Amino acid sequence: MTGNHKDSTITRRRALAVTGGTVAAGGLAVAGYQSAFADTAADAAASASASATSTSTSSSCMTLMTSVTEGPYYLDGALVRKDITEGKSGVPLTLRLTVVDATDGCTPVSGAAVEIWHCDAWGYYSGYTTANPGGSAPAESEDGSTADDDTYLRGYQIANANGVVKFETIFPGWYTPRTCHIHLKVHTGGQKEDGTYEGGKVNYTGQLFFPDDIAEEIFTLEPYSKHSGSYTTLDNDMVYDGGGTSSGLLTLKAVHKADPSKGYKGSITLGVDPDAENTGAGGGGGGGGTPPSGAPSDAPTGTPPSDAPSASASS
Predict the structure, then answer these.
(1) Distance in angstroms (rounded) separating the CA atoms of residues 231 and 219
(2) Entry pTM
(3) Is 204 exposed, middle or buried (0-12, 13-18, 19+ CB in 10 A)?
């Protein structure tokens, strides 16, 4: 890996810890975020229509989402907020996630707390900023943003009456040996407290995935292109099982078809069982991925499936 890591968690990135919503550093214009994150009347109408369809026609209800381990980079105490970027540079991504009860005709799970976390454009996670993402990438401290090293690209949102949450973030990068992905948990029974979500239980732990052709195109753009190496496709990933939407594959729509740097809108319906409990910790239900060199030794790594490709230390 090129570049020297710096331990800068004390000296930088504190001003935006609780506010989120900032302009991404490194060349992405404000206009790009505004167009990618705009909530239009048409979106609202589509949301209402989709909800009505799923609740009135039980035959359209999807199966339960596939649960997997939480992976090596989970942290407690994420903030409740819509914009989790904290100034991190990357291609804008809006996520519209709908939580439904797959055991009861896909009725919306109002009040469910959806928690997501993912790496930045170079493969680094907040809280683990010295963990080598594999291949060759600049040190995380060289990205020039003012993001808080303990909180960026992590957050909760509480589902509305239609079971819908929205996040504003960036397209994730990648790390060896994993494909591009976003981690998530669905919680119920708790409440917002001190800026985070407390209590209740975790009903579902999973990951969201991206079509290879879109991910590979994004990774040719700045700042992603500064991370070079062998990218793992969906077919070779140790977690994604090829099940499409029920395995977390997002539906993506480009904000501007001719210019992928303008961002994408991603959506998926999460079919969960509100009575179940699945924390995703300690293995079971698929591999979480081996943390790259430099990750804390006490991080929960999960266990890759027996037929998963071997995890190399670098690409």
Answers:
(1) 9
(2) 0.76
(3) buried
